[in-house]
Specification:
By secondary structure, the chain is mainly alpha-helical. It is built from 5 helices and no strands. Helix 2 runs antiparallel to helix 5. The longest helix is centred in the last third of the chain and has 38 residues. The chain is globular, with a radius of gyration of 17 Å. The protein starts with a helix and ends in a 5-residue tail after the last helix.
């Protein structure tokens, strides 16, 4: 039972939600530095770009009938649209949402959470997904990996 619960919780959106909660908690720690008057504007910009990336990536993947499930088997290699900017636009969008929360909350400690999120998602999901893509699409995937960066 514990393994099933752990597996159910080990999904990128759950990690994102956990990061948001952690940023909110860290914002309760009074620090002498923050983002000042720029915080809310930067937050809205990051949120808008992050959500845009996620929606565009989701819609493009669906249009090619390939999975958005990080543990699923891909049926197409998506290299256009936002996938020409980043190999992981949905995860990049998640990271931008965390950055938006960091700016909004005004806590520089949120940047540590963001770094941890990038590391966890890379280790637990991205490298496995890239191996799966390399197995399924060979040289075509290798060319895309060489041409487009993992994050930005």
């Amino acid at each position: 039972m514990r393994s099933a619960v752990a597996k159910w919780l080990d999904w990128p959106p759950v990690w994102t939600l956990g990061g948001l909660v952690l940023i909110w908690l860290l914002a309760l720690i009074p620090l002498p530095m923050g983002f000042g008057a720029f915080g809310p504007g930067l937050a809205l910009a990051c949120l808008a770009v992050g959500l845009w990336l996620m929606v565009k990536a989701f819609l493009r993947m669906r249009s090619l009938s390939t999975t958005v499930n990080p543990r699923g088997q891909p049926h197409a290699l998506v290299t256009d649209s936002v996938f020409a900017i980043s190999r992981n636009p949905i995860y990049l969008g998640d990271a931008l949402v965390l950055l938006a929360a960091t700016f909004w909350a005004g806590t520089v400690l949120g940047l540590v959470v963001l770094g941890g999120f990038v590391w966890v998602v890379t280790e637990r999901f991205i490298t496995i997904e890239e191996d799966r893509l390399a197995d399924a699409f060979g040289d075509q995937a290798a060319e895309w990996f060489a041409r487009v960066r993992r994050w930005l």
